[in-house]
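Q: what sequence does this backbone want?
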């Protein structure tokens, strides 16, 4: 379970202006910022380069490359982080410790980051986690992180990299080989959610919609009454027992 550089000064970020949405498998142009992250625009849409600073655009870095300030192991806020380390500018799952969870809770947001895994690796990005949940994944939906080639979950589109874990299948052939960085954009705005991987929209869904409920009832989440219900909550990087790496983690809150 459950992005690359342009020649810019450090204060300059190029943002792609998007167009219409699709239901999945949509390839988009990606322009890179000084902080990093994928800023995909819809296929066929014109793109305009706009110079601005990350702060002016509302982006906030969640990882400074040197410390794990702003994060805690799930259910242990305020305690020293265990099992995760900042190494060479990367946030790495190095041992058992539990999901790494933001100190703050978020409702509507865009999250951008890069990840890579070791052979057979498994992790995920879990969002809107109800803090009352004993474990993160019983309330928070998950964008799957996976080595599709060697992990058994990679044989099923519902549990492959980029999927809405166990509910909405990922577009095949988008995840990069083990050892290479994958660029994520996760958009959560009201009930509307989009998973983007390497400039391609993998899935798009509406939390609580009839389609969502039908899929949920047909999954292992059927008995988890709070799954996908929280209007806001923590964001977590999943500890699934494997070594996984993250960098260029940033977030922009939406109204």
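A:
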């Amino acid at each position: 379970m459950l992005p690359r550089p342009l020649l810019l000064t450090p204060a300059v970020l190029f943002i792609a202006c998007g167009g219409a949405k699709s239901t999945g498998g949509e390839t988009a142009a990606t322009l890179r910022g000084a902080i990093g992250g994928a800023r995909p625009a819809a296929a066929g849409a014109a793109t305009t380069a706009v110079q601005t600073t990350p702060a002016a655009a509302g982006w906030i870095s969640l990882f400074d490359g040197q410390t794990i300030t702003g994060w805690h192991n799930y259910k242990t806020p305020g305690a020293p982080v265990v099992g995760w380390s900042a190494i060479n500018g990367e946030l790495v799952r190095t041992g058992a410790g539990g999901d790494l969870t933001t100190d703050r809770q978020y409702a509507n947001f865009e999250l951008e980051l890069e990840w890579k895994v070791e052979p057979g690796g498994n992790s995920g990005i879990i969002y809107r986690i109800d803090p009352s949940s004993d474990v993160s994944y019983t309330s928070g939906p998950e964008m799957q992180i996976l080595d599709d080639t060697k992990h058994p979950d990679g044989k099923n589109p519902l549990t492959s990299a980029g999927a809405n874990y166990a509910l909405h299948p990922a577009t095949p052939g988008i995840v990069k080989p083990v050892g290479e960085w994958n660029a994520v954009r996760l958009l959560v705005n009201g009930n509307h959610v989009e998973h983007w991987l390497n400039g391609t929209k993998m899935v798009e869904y509406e939390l609580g919609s009839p389609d969502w409920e039908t899929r949920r009832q047909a999954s292992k989440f059927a008995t988890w009454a709070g799954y996908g219900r929280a209007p806001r909550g923590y964001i977590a990087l999943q500890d699934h027992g494997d070594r996984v790496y993250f960098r260029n983690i940033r977030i922009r809150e939406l109204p």
